[in-house]
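Hey, weird one. I pasted the ROK family protein sequence into the form twice and got a warning about non-standard characters only the second time. First submission, copied straight from the form history:
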Amino acid sequence: MSDAPSTGAAPHADGHAALRRWAEGGGPPALRASIVLLAAEGLSTSDIARRLGVSRQTVTTWRQRYAVEGVDGLRDRARAGRPVEIDEAEIVVGILTSPADDRTSRLLARRLGCSHTVVAETRRRWNLTGSHLALPALPLSPSLEPADLWPVGLHLDPECTVLVLAGRTASPVPPAPGRRVDPYALSAVSSAMADAAAAAAGAASGPEAAAPLRGGAASFLDSVRRVHPHPDLHAVVLRSATGGERVAGLCDERGITVHRIPARTTEVSFLRAVLALDASRHPESSTRVLLDLASALAGMADSGGLSRVQWVREPLPAPAGARLPATVSGAGPAAGGGVNHIDLGSFNECVVIETVRLAGTVTRGEIAERTRLTQQSVSRIARSLIQRGLLVEERQRHSSVGKPSSPVRLRDGAAHALGIHIDPNVLTAVLVDLSGRIVARRAEPITADPRPGVVVGQIAALGEAVLEQAGHGRWEEGFLGIGVATPGPVDTVSGTVLDPPLMSALRDVPLRTLLERRFSCPIVIEKDCSAAAVGERWIGRESRACDFVYLYLGTGVGSGLFLNGDLYRGLSANAGEFGQLCAVTLGRFDPDGRPEILPECNPGSYLGSEPSRVVGRQRTRLTVHQAAKAIGKGVLSVIDLLDLGLVVIGGPFFTADVADVYLTEIEHAVNAYPTARRLRRVRVERSVNSSEAVAVGAASTIFHSTFTPRLRRTP
């Protein structure tokens, strides 16, 4: 059927007013009126389905009913027999997508168009009573005790649809207040699942072309068990053309319990409810997990059912507070030893530490003057920090007026962190103390083996070697954790590397989860350019106590942003993709309209000062001068957009023989061309960090998240 918006007549003036009143109300009439009104605005069936979170068939049905019968076609029709029961999975989704204050049974019933007693009964069955969400219970058959359930796999073909859940014991702790499911991502999965299920049903009753697609459940279950070997696995049969006996047999062979969905749900609504439960309870269930599943389902719908979906989620993160097994001999994090976390009791303590860090050495009176805290507060906080070993007193300063003052400074050895930088060519690991001094370092070429397990094993072994090289007495006190810097994009919520350029071995690898199996300490995954900016801020002290953009020249060119005193990561923690901005600024696009991957943003391929020449249609490699001019245009856009006064340049390809070229060209671009050039002079400076800038920055992300004062503490 055509997806054009012409299906369904446009409402006349009186009908338009009536539909507006319906849309402002609640229940099914509001949904139906919204479909017609959006269609009248010219939206396609797919766009309406995505916006409202329903299937395309639902949209088509109500548009056709309105076209034939007008407003009356949107009303409920009298039916013989028992009244239609509302889908309880839709009630669950309504609970999870509502703010905490709007989760009462009566409010939900009014919005969903059903009885509040039905809503209350559903809440009891799913263990979702109260304004906050406790540990849910899925009313499956056979029954399943309340547990921490994660959807870890989905198989869909013309023969069956199977959802696999991983169960782990957990205390009934509700999710953080205010957390809500991403409605757009959930709607994308719902719409894609409805279309894929319809395509699979059509293929199941269609010609023999779908026959080769049957029978893939065995390999799917093997994949799920291989990726998730430890949790208890439960297979929920959402649909089966053969009654589920074959799927049950396959699951029994692999030690997987088989369940059936509740009678008052459908395969689409039940999946939607389970995904909403997962996303609301687990911060690791980022929007990416939902969108990846939607993408896999969309592929089957697009093929008309002539393909299968076999989606397997990455390994789950370690349970909170769990003791991870030792994998190497010796003490410390690699062997499951205790980690000495530094407990900061207040925001003001972080303010004092930040002031001392920036100044280097400073008196209590100067701290009070800079922070506007009272002398008594500063003295009390300083005394506590000295007792805990974070600060040390220097020799007294004598003055002609008043008492001698005792300056304080950070004790460098009070805290340590391990930083690991993953580059397409080389791995670097450093152990850094609180001052940013490198205690131990090691670098080695990255393995050519394309298997992710081998690469992750090399990363972990390198980190263990650096800790061993430093000696246990050098870092055990106040060891705060491990920062890992990797090429982006990266899902920092789940610690998964997505699509790193030139590193296909790490595509969709759950790096943090795999490293947690080797190190029992906090681990933070960060983009390489963002980590370098954090290191610059931490090591640069007062010279970097302002907003700046860090231009990172590595295998590619990236940027890190410090805005309003903190690292700006963006919505998905992937801010700073400089290469595309540079391509747009230069007007360079490929035939599909995407910004080009510019050779100017690959510093490792530059020539010296020799000009490039054209040989036939092939251009020889760029000179540093040519590339610096192009990169300067990209930096100009950043300065014009953000109105910054400092650009810092660093990275492994920012070497002494090319530094002057970059500094000269970029400084000219950001001061000669900006719109507000009469109001500011932009400084362009070298990084204060060493060639291990990103590795030091990765370790500094641990210090930054621990000590930097912020009202909302996030890593």
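That's the output from the first submission. The warning seems to come from a hidden character in my clipboard, not from the data itself. The first helix runs from residue 13 to 24.
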